[in-house]
Amino acid sequence: MNKKRFWMYIGISFGLTWGLGAAAYAMGVRYEDMAMQFVFMLFMFAPLAAMLLTRLWTKEGFRGMEPAIGFAGKKKYYVLAVFIPVLYIEAGWGLLWLWHPEAFSAKQMTVVLPAACLVSALVFSTAAFGEEAGWRGYMYPKLEKKFGDVGACLIGGTVWAVWHFPMIAQGHTFGLDYPGAPYLGFLVFIPYCIGVGSIQWYLTKKSGSVWPATFLHAVNNAYISGSFLMTAATDAGGVLDNGNRLAEMTVLMLPSMLVGVVCMMGMRKKKES
Questions:
Q1: C-beta of residue 222 within 8 angstroms of C-beta of residue 121
Q2: Separation CA 273–CA 271 (nearest Å)
Q3: pTM of the predicted model, to two decimals?
């Protein structure tokens, strides 16, 4: 692994994202403002920009990146990328239903929500590609050369989580109405990113393209965001709006973490064999 290129990529990714976030915050833009949501959307293109700038400035060039950013590999991994997040998030909602059955509408959660989120994910795919081209298309391959697949997932997932910290600090994902906010949210988000990042890296390795990871990322984000809106619309006021959001989000994330562990172990066994 070329350390200069790796750290330049990290510096640019974090610099663009955290710098833009700090500038917006200094101008009085806050999480609840629509302008900050637009800023968060711009964040997603920072890894792509960092990858391109690193390749340019270090004279790494652009040869060899075509398979990663093109549509390649078996089509089944593209199908899996769409349905895996639906399955693990529905599993998470199943666990939450056992906790708060009054906050759910069965039709909304099993019919309306999946259909709406799969459609909206198409819109988010472009922004998700901005992240995946950088993380799974550039950073993870470099980490794999030095630390193997499991090391790439553990280190890469942690870096990816830390990159999100400014958003978590403003209430993204967990809110701020829990003890130890936002630091406890930081700790929960790390294993979540390791888990989801492992699934995305598995799909990237299997397909030879970041597009399956991109589709998974888009569906995952659209599904969780849609879930917030859907449960908030129920008569009970909705789970995730009752002061236990950190605990409930942790439960919602557990299935994705478990699937991530399975993917990591699968890559490890294949390498050992």
A1: yes
A2: 5
A3: 0.91
